[in-house]
Amino acid sequence: MSKHYSQRFINQAVSNSQRATQFRQARDKAIAIMASVNDGNDPQVEKSQKRKEQTVADLAQRYMEEHVHVHCKPSTAKGYQYNLDKRIFPQLGDLRVSEVTRKDIANFHHTFRYVPYEANRCLEMLSKMFNLAEMWGLRPDGTNPRRHIKKYPEKKRERYLS
Fold first, then answer.
1. Same domain, 33 and 99
2. Domain coverage including residue 19
3. Which of 20, 75, 84, 95 has the fewest CB atoms within 10 Å of its CB?
């Protein structure tokens, strides 16, 4: 039984020269895929591996279970869960752990610039999560996307003893 792979390329609003260029690119890509298949590689294996890869939401759940509940107070864990549910999951939860870039984290941090304290707390949570992802083998070492992103300045709060 042989495997058949096909690639479909349709674009209605392009000129003939663009269509020819796009056709050449599509043909070159198809030739590369066929060469890979002839070498014994299966393109579907790569797709299925990507689908099985953990998302940021999965990483956060593991982070909470294996790190936060073990090393932090219950009140801290409650605050972390709030930040995950209300801030991190809506923007980053569906992304694959290996596909998160520094730009994604910077955009996330910038979104919460109006609440700098919470933005910085979320940034540090993400930093720890991605450090643990490296330790757990979900990302290559030294690829934490939080690196080189500056925190917002925080004003020291004046406390009074009563």
1. no
2. 14-40
3. 75
pLDDT at residue 14, as a whole number: 54
Neighbour-count burial for 55-79, b at 16+ CB within 10 Å, e otherwise:
bbbebbebbbeebbeeeeeeeebeb
Do 74 and 109 share a structural domain? yes
Residue 104 within any structural domain of the chain: yes
Residue 60 corresponds to which amino acid? A
Span 87-112, average pLDDT: 95
Name the residue with tokens 């406390």: 159
- CATH number of the domain that residue 112 is part of: 1.10.150
Structure confidence by residue, pLDDT tens digits, 36-48 = 778 777 777 666 6
- DSSP-assigned beta bridge partners for residue 96: 55
Q: Could you give the C-alpha distances from 103 to 47, 76, 85, 146, 155, in angstroms and in order? A: 24, 28, 21, 9, 26
Residue 116 pLDDT exceeds 90: yes
Question: Is 146 a domain residue?
Answer: no
How many domains is the chain partitioned into structurally?
Answer: 2
- SS3 for 55? strand
Does residue 109 share a domain with residue 63? yes
The residue with tokens 């956060």 is 60
Record the tokens describing residue 42, joined without a space. Answer: 């299966």
